[in-house]
Amino acid sequence: MIVGSLLSRGAILQSLATSAFLCTSVRNAPQSSPPLTPDEIDSQRRLSSSLVRRAVASHLRADPTLAGPLLRLAFHDAATREKIDAETFTGGPNGSIRYEVGWSENRGISRPLAAVEGIYYDVGDGMGLSFADCVALAGAQAVETAGGPTIPVKLGRKDANVADARERRRALRKDTDRSFVETTLPSAGLDSDGLRLYFGALGLSEKELVALCGAHDLGRHVTLLDMPKSCLKDLTRECLENAPVLMPFVAEEPDGFSNTYYKKLLRWYNRKIELGEAGFIPTDVNLVVDPGLRQYVQQFAGDERDFFATFGVAYQKLVDAGATSDGRY
Question: In angstroms, rounded to a whole number, what is the distance separating the alpha carbons of residues 178 and 203?
Fold first, then answer.
């Protein structure tokens, strides 16, 4: 399995054996066993989430470049949520990302997905966590291990067994062509109005949407540099998955989580950025071109603690939808 050396199966079993209340899990408990008390359930969740987070941190120590992809995996699993009416939602943080690997929006998702699946089968599945729980925990731990805030999340998500809808049932649009939101994952070509519509439909404020975009402080995106001629003629999914050159969104510490992203956006806006400093996509620059969103870019550039706090709340809103636990872990 893929779990790092700190969490061998033997270590996991030893942890279980030394926890009296976990001698038998809820799932495997005999018929005669009394149900767990609320305190025992809370203790089980604390242990299981801790083991998952430790496994994720072990992966990241071995490969720090996995932080951005793990955060993206959590976002793409959760952001497909669509409100149908006052009480009905579809999609969301339900582990359906496993069935959405073929979507063009999810290119490059296979590597973090394999890591979380390994952790789930080695740790989470035997301790009452859903795959969706593990995805949400992995994204949060990726942020923390990369130097960002500690983000506890709720547990108790239910796993889907099919892909979520790729097209929204109800498209959203304002006056501009690029504000048209027709898919459950955001297009890189959305303008600032489109970003407001998309993230607003997820229950996020303008400040929170700007904070979540700060995830681009981590990670890299595909480029055509050194792409084989055969791929340039026919840019298949395999070509994109195996792109030889990935460009950081922010060249300075692409595997660290900080407010550098916002500082670089302001440098771009003030025409002071140098070649190679950043590799922004259209949705990035929209944050600083739009005056209403730029105020938060400026705020986060000058106050990293505010960015961390806002990002943590926004992440919880995104991934905790549908989770049933009262507490966060």
Answer: 21
